[in-house]
Amino acid sequence: MRELKAYVSHIFGTDPEELLCVRTKHAHTVMGIPKQEIFSADDADRIRLELIIRMIRYRNKEEER
Fold it and tell me: What is this structure's pTM?
């Protein structure tokens, strides 16, 4: 359980861009559009939650083997 808590804390403490390894030439824009217009705070939370769900599913599959 501590491992999951550390993982969740890391995900919510890190910028989703960094977690997904999305690098652009200009740090605050994508194709000239500000990143804040593309991804809202809700989108960032959704991405974080999806990462956590995938981690849990992966872990469950590993335990089945």
Answer: 0.68
